[in-house]
Amino acid sequence: MTVDKELEKLSRLTPPAPDPEARTRALAAAMQAFDAAGNNTTAPQGNAKGWRPSSIINWIWSPAMNKKFLAGSALATLLVVPAASYLTFELARNGKPTVGQEEIAASRSKNDAPKPIAEPVPQAGGPVTVAPPVPQTRPEISEPVEKPAADSAQVLQDNEQRAPARSAESLLSDFSSDEISALLNKSDGSDRGAKRAAPTAPGMVAQGQLLVEPMAVAPSPVPPADGHAQIQLDPDRERFANAAANPVKSVATDPVSTFSADVDSASYSVVRRSLTGGAMPDPQSVRVEEMINYFPYDWPGPDNAEQPFKATVTVMPTPWNHDTELMHVAIKGYDIAPATAPRANLVFLIDVSGSMDEPDKLPLLKSAFRLLVNRLKPDDTVSIVTYAGNAGTVLEPTRVAERSKILSAIDRLEPGGSTGGAEGIQAAYDLANRAFVKDGVNRVMLATDGDFNVGPSSDEDLKRIIEEKRKDGIFLTVLGFGRGNLNDSLMQTLAQNGNGSAAYIDTLAEAQKTLVEEAGSTLFPIAKDVKFQVEFNPERIAEYRLIGYETRALKREDFNNDRVDAGDIGSGHSVTAIYEITPKGSPAVMNDDLRYGAAGRAPTTTSGNSHQGEIAFVKMRYKRPGEDKSALITTPVGDGNAVASVDAAPQDVRFSVAVAAFGQKLSRVPALDTYSYQAVADLATASRGADPFGYRSDFLGLIRLADGLSQR
């Protein structure tokens, strides 16, 4: 401000008039100095021969550089700059060099031979010829041909006359005004303050990179005409454990249904991830029983731990088929009071391989385990083993009383390396054995995206390892994270054979549900090898179809074989199984009576016809933790279990039936082709009931998403 004021004052002053005498004195002094300099000048600079001494190399090099090579550099600049501009727009628009489908077709129609992206620019020492890139073939690069400098200059001059120059205006004409505007306004989002990085032109490489060979350019994906883009997960990288939907079976030939308990909930979370991401889920990812068992239900439970289960059976009309009925079997496990829960010895087996370096993988995993640690009691023990190529112990067995030490070890986890899961599993079980708690809970909690690619990585090899370790009384929980390469099939294999369960964590809210709100059922088992067997009365029922449990099917003889492994149930867990049954004489019967079979034979009776009027007979087998001999629970099903209408069924029964209908529609079960998503939503809305955590409200939102996506 001070300088501005001084300048303003000076601008108002009147400049002094020129002094003629001072001007004369100055001119005289200048002329005198000029004359003195002329008198002192001797011989001119240089030599007598008239040219400056110089080497023969400079004599040849200077004219070439000043004329022809200077022109060549200018030509190279004219070619490279437009090409770089072209790829700048391409990379900004698509993230990689792309060629549209129409351009490829036009190019092939003109000439079957592939065209180079840009004319090669010859350099001193001889031109280098590069073969054009051909898809799925390695291009050949010819050897440099040495030529004299004079010949090189001549070749360069000829190329200057032939080389076409493309202006920036012609490059910009390849893009519409909307595309250019979108590119200029595009923001990275991760670093808004950073300068925009300049992409590299086709046929060139970024600074600091070495071009080994030209790459074939893939066409860009064409967006849908309606402007709606759906997320499509790579089916080759995500593996799901599922099987074809259970068929309708005739009671005359196959009256007994046997299956293992399933308390997993991973499928529901995977379905939710797909729908909220704007895509219908892969039918193979839908396991209906896991969707049903995802929700908490208020089934009546046992009065004491002596009998760990109680079964409640309801027979009701089928909402999607008026000629059939549903037999709804609800099992509730005994809920251990937190104060009486046994001590826990937990080993966190955490995948820190390079594939876990995504926001919904390792960062979410660390937050989830922090929630679990804050839920444990001070006397519980936590150990941490990581694996990425090689397994390592991050935290030796530590009491939860030292909570800050455990949380600090979790926070230090960083991703990197390949996935050697088998070695990590071995190390985790060894650590669990060292800190084993007798009459307590000993469990390995494996957290991974399932991408096992180092060491014994086949499902069968890892299954064998888990089967050997479960004999030591150490259970397994598998937590899946992330998308893109989720190995759900392996997760299910490990959980089923490790006396454990599997869950998929896609959000922190899901981690809260699985590891905090349902910590008792997740960590504390009340029974293992739980099996179900249902026998239908051929006098009352003609056909049946089990909804879900395709991957849990057992042979009839497996039910009484205690050596056959089955699912486990934790404290307070609920298990629901639903059969669609066809009464005798119903027009919905699909199988003809057997000509020579026992279709008309009366069922075996006992004295007093004790089973007269029964529809079915439900049996359950289970083993207590630490025991090898199973116990049996039986429940007959009769007319007293039936209700006259859907609305007369208990509220939780109706809601679970709505979930079963939704899962079957996503699985594309033909029996529900005529039952709309709106009908599913109406049934779920009418039976939503108490929803303290909002799970059922979220389910209604998923139905609406599926309805909208299915109409595209």
Summarize the structure.
It is built from 20 helices and 16 strands. The protein has 712 residues and is an alpha+beta fold.
List descriptors.
single chain; 712 residues; alpha+beta; six-stranded mixed beta sheet; five-stranded antiparallel beta sheet; 18% strand
Explain what the structure shows.
InterPro entries: CLCR, Uncharacterised_YfbK_N, VWF_A, vWFA_dom_sf, YfbK_C. Residues 345-523 form the VWFA domain. Residues 1-11, 140-149 have a biased composition (Basic and acidic residues). It comes from Rhizobium lentis. This is DUF3520 domain-containing protein. It contains 20 helices and 16 strands. With 712 residues, it is α+β, with helices and mostly antiparallel strands. A six-stranded mixed β-sheet has the order 7-6-5-8-9-10, with helices on both faces. Strands 1-12-14-4-3 form a five-stranded antiparallel β-sheet. The longest helix has 27 residues, at 68-94. The protein is elongated.
